[in-house]
């Protein structure tokens, strides 16, 4: 049985290679293949290709550590993801193509940590996670990331970054240069929370905007994820049964998004 398992592993590894290419060209081919797999959200395939790159034992391309971090983040190998993203930041610095994205992912990792949370304990987790010290530390990290002293501005920028990168498309395989699904952004004006929704589902984009006075509302938002529908839903703070925001199916991201929205609502309620 052990020999069979080893044979299968070697077979899978070998299948990722092109035997006729010199190593440096094979490394470039695999990096392009990784980018293609990431664009298609095929995280298992991207992981195999990254492993094949590591087997080549040559100096990796600059973007290798970012993609390795992103893929392991999606596969919930969070300690590996954090090490790779930190290596990317140290290696390429601010000139890196994915510098901001890597910083955002590191912020997500630090905020969430290891472990899964059941739907029954979501609200309890949010309450315990929003202690004064932790909330202050989290927001300070966002202020440093976005180079602003305004905590509301930092939270809005983080929320919009998450909404943009993880927009709901309704597709298992994303089509490059094709707009589909729902795209959201938030804003704050005169103490009110604004939400803008761009809807591409009908083929003709439509735009709607709403404003919400958050005073008196429960800031701890309800959400749920459905793998079959490839979506995570955040429910309206004034009505826990009304769909408010939809993003692609990613439990870690929606938890980070809900936490940032909760903190933003709490700040607005204090003013």
Structural account:
- There is one protein chain.
- This protein has 271 residues and is an alpha+beta fold.
- The protein folds into 2 domains: 22-110, Serine Threonine Protein Phosphatase 5, Tetratricopeptide repeat; 118-270, no CATH class.
- The protein has 10 helices and 6 strands.
- It has a 3-stranded antiparallel beta sheet with strand order 1-2-3.
- Strand 5 and strand 6 (239-248) form a beta hairpin.
- The longest helix has 20 residues, at 251-270.
- The chain is globular.
- The N and C termini lie far apart (65 Å).
- Mean pLDDT is 79; it is low at 1-18 and 114-134.
How would you describe this structure in keywords?
about 270 residues; Serine Threonine Protein Phosphatase 5, Tetratricopeptide repeat; alpha+beta; 10 helices; three-stranded antiparallel beta sheet; 6 strands; 2 domains; single chain
């Amino acid at each position: 049985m052990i020999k069979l398992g080893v044979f299968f592993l070697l077979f899978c590894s070998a299948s990722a290679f092109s035997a006729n290419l010199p190593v440096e060209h094979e490394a470039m081919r695999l990096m392009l293949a990784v980018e293609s797999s990431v664009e298609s959200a095929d995280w298992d395939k991207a992981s195999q290709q990254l492993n094949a790159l590591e087997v080549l034992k040559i100096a990796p391309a600059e973007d290798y550590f970012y993609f390795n971090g992103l893929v392991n983040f999606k596969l919930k190998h969070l300690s590996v993801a954090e090490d790779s993203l930190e290596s990317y930041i140290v290696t390429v610095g601010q000139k890196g193509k994915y510098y901001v994205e890597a910083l955002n992912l590191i912020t997500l990792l630090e905020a969430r940590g290891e472990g899964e949370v059941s739907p029954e304990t979501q609200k309890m987790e949010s309450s315990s996670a929003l202690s004064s010290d932790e909330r202050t530390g989290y927001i300070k990290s966002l202020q440093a990331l976005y180079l602003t002293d305004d905590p509301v501005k930092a939270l809005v920028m983080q929320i919009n970054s998450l909404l943009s990168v993880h927009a709901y498309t309704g597709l298992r395989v994303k089509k490059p240069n094709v707009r589909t699904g729902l795209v959201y952004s938030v804003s704050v004006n005169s103490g009110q929370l604004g939400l803008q929704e761009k809807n591409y589902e009908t083929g003709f984009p439509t735009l709607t905007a709403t404003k919400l006075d958050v005073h008196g509302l429960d800031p701890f938002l309800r959400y749920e994820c459905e793998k079959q529908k490839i979506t995570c839903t955040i429910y309206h703070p004034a009505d826990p049964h009304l769909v408010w925001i939809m993003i692609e199916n990613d439990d870690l991201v929606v938890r980070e998004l809900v936490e940032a929205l909760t903190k933003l609502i709490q700040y607005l309620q204090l003013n």
